[in-house]
Amino acid sequence: MSLDERVRVGLRRSAEAGGLDADAVFDGVVAAHRRGRLRTRVVRQAVAVAVAFTLFVGVAFFVSWRNTPARYRSVAAVALAPQGTSAFTLADPVRDALAPATRRATLLAAHLAPDDAHVSFRATSTGPHTISLTATAPSPRESALVTGKWVSVLTTIRRADARRQLIKSRNAVRSHVETLRKQLQAIDAKLAKLDPKTYGSAWKYDATNRAFPPRSSTPPPPVPEQGSVKELNLAFERIQLKSQLEKYARQAPGDHFGALAPLTLTQPIGQKPPVRVDATPSATGPALIAWAAGLALILAAAFVIYRRRARAILHT
Q: What is the percentage of the chain residues whose pLDDT exceeds 90?
């Protein structure tokens, strides 16, 4: 609204109110006009500052996002056969997968530096017998390659662990069987002294097969119906020892690495193609908050400036 229009409107309202004070009307119109121009100027200045501030923040966002390196993620699902029938238990597969030695071996297998910080590893349990291996790298080729090598390295490590535990278990069984054989030989010697007729050749039956573990092709001599308490106790103890040795003999054919390894090894189910997973820069959230706070500060400053200058207009 122009100054002339404001004057006409002010005079008409003053006349309708029953009194006509031209000076007062003119002063009021001039003050209102000056306040309107002041408001327009302050708003334009605030908008200009807000636009400049927004452009600055936008450029900062663009630069920070452009400086954020590209990241690609590849995921492989791995199955673990149950270990319930094995003679040993392997370590937690997730812990094995994230062990420093496993990660170094994986990076070396992928022809990368063993301390390459650009590759990240994440392993999670997705079920009772499945785990998920996720490798994130700067390129899709590296991501897929590292994930595939990771599965191979983990399988090799768990196979080696299974072999070590199997050898340890078999050595323990061999030692225990050897102890049982020595106990059986001692009992045979005692029985031969107490009852040479019945047990004089018992050692032949017990030593017919010296392979590990021992197998007996002939039944043991019967327990005598009459004999001393000591002889009967030794005879029954001999039967128990023979039973334990025969039990180990029956278990031995299936107790080898080829039969137990499938129960503890990892088997890849599938690997997904690499996908880009650029993360928002960590400073984006605080920067957005600062941008909003800056806009609010600009509006508050514009309002304060307008009120002060408008108050000055009223006193002039």
A: 16
